[in-house]
Design goal:
Length: about 200
């Protein structure tokens, strides 16, 4: 990770120039380019996705990796720190605000949804009932393993590991490993990895 971060710093001037060029291209054309690169993880595709996020997200740090076939919605409500990786086939909807801190890795096939349907009006189908915003905060040094679901109104504290397939529907305290449906703490993280 450190060497990749050094490369990003090394090419900072070029990235700033390309950011300027992206800033003057209209969104419909950028969306076509995004879809053209959507099924690849080549260097140009990764760089383009990063520049797209810098333009349309609420805030972005440096060194953000977005893999292929990632579906990102409501980018204007998405904030990301530095050294963030969102791997292939993820779905992230920031309608209700999503904040992702520094050094966060989200493995493949995860879903992050910051809103929820209501069902209070019985005179119309549930799908047409009001949608409520439910913010999600993922703090620093978090690893979300493959196939997780993170639901709205949760905060994931610093240094958390979420095991594959877990469903997060409540706040997670720092320095812990969580697994299961719903996610439950099974241990405190040590400095030494278990053998």
């Amino acid at each position: 990770m450190t060497s990749m971060y050094s490369k990003v710093k090394k090419y900072n001037v070029i990235i700033k120039l390309l950011s300027y060029l992206i800033s003057i291209i209209p969104k419909p054309l950028l969306n076509i380019i995004w879809h053209f690169f959507d099924s690849t993880e080549g260097k140009i595709a990764i760089l383009f996705r990063y520049l797209y996020l810098k333009k349309y997200c609420k805030t972005t740090g440096e060194n953000i990796f977005v893999g292929k076939n990632v579906n990102l919605k409501n980018l204007q409500n998405l904030s990301m720190g530095s050294n963030v990786s969102i791997h292939s086939f993820n779905y992230l909807d920031a309608y209700g605000d999503v904040y992702i801190g520094d050094n966060v890795s989200i493995a493949n096939h995860c879903t992050i949804i910051s809103s929820d349907h209501t069902w209070g009006r019985s005179d119309i189908p549930i799908k047409y009932n009001k949608i409520v915003k439910k913010p999600i905060i993922i703090k620093d040094d978090v690893w979300v393993a493959a196939g997780c679901r993170i639901l709205g109104n949760v905060t994931i504290e610093n240094r958390v590991v979420i095991g594959a397939g877990a469903v997060v529907n409540k706040n997670l305290i720092e320095n812990a490993l969580y697994v299961g449906v719903p996610a439950k703490k099974i241990k405190t993280l040590n400095e030494e990895f278990p053998k």
